[in-house]
Amino acid sequence: MTRAAILLLAAVAWGQAPPQYTLEVVANGMRFADGPVWSLEDFLLFSDTVTDKQHKFTPGKGVSEIGSHAGGTAGNAYDEKGNLYTCEFRERRVIRTAKNGKVEVIAARFEGKRFNAPNDVVVRRDGNVYFTDPAFGNQEDTRELDFYGVFRVTTRGQVEAIAKWKTRPNGLALSPNGRTLYVSDSDGQSIHAFDLDRTGAGSNERVVISKIPGVPDGVKTDEMGNIYVAAKNVLVYSPQGELVRTFQTTEIPSNLAFGDPDFSTLYITARTSVYRIRVGVKGSVPYSP
Known about the structure:
By secondary structure, the protein is mainly beta.
C-alpha cells in the first residue's frame, strides 16, 4: 500500500454531527504491527511481532528499524524517566531497557512458573507496572500457569496477580488520573475495569463495556476519560461505557497510541501497516510529558 491519505466518514457521531476524518498510512510492509507507544523524544515506537523487530516512525523523516528481540516483541511502554518496557512473548517475560541501553528483566515467573506470553504493558506515574499474560495459537502448548493473568510489578519489584482469568486478557490502559486500570477480554468481547489504590493494588473488578464488535485488543484513554478500543474497527466509548464514535479502518486494528507533540493524534497499528488520525483531543499519559 502506498503512503496516502484516505478520507472516511465516522460511523457514529462525536458531538453535534458526524465529522470527517483523515486516516493516513505512515508505515507499511509489516508482518503484524503492534505495541505502539509515543516516545518523549518525539517518535512512535512499535513492534513487528512476527519478525521480532522494533521500528520507529518520526514525523517528517519516516520509518526506521531500531532493534530486534530474539525473545519476541509485543507491547511497549515508557515510564516518565524514558525507560522502555517491552513484553517479550517468546521468552515469556517483561524487560526494561534504560536510556543507556542497559536491559533488566523485571518479570519472568509467577510462583515459580513461567508466564504464558506477556502481551501488553503500561506504567503508572509512581512506577507500578501492569501487564497482561494471555496465550494465543501455539503459545498454548507450553503453558505452565493454569490461568491467563493480569499482573502488577510493584515499585519494589514484586510480581502480583491482579486477576486470574479463564478467558484471555489482551490490551490495557490507565485512566487519566491513574486510579482505574482497563483491560480488554478478547474472548469475552468486553472491557474490564479495576480500581487502583495509592499503592497500585487492584480491586473491584467489573465489566464496563460488553458486546464489543470484533475481538478487542489494544486499549487507550484520552484526557476526558473516553476509552478507545481496537476491535473490528477503532471504537470510542464514554467513561460510562456508551459508544460515542467509530473510526473505520482498512485493516483490523491491533493496538493504539496517542502521539505527536500535542498528543492529539491517534496512531493505529493494524496488521501490515501503521495509521494515524488527528482526533482533536489529547490522550491521557501515564507519565509526565
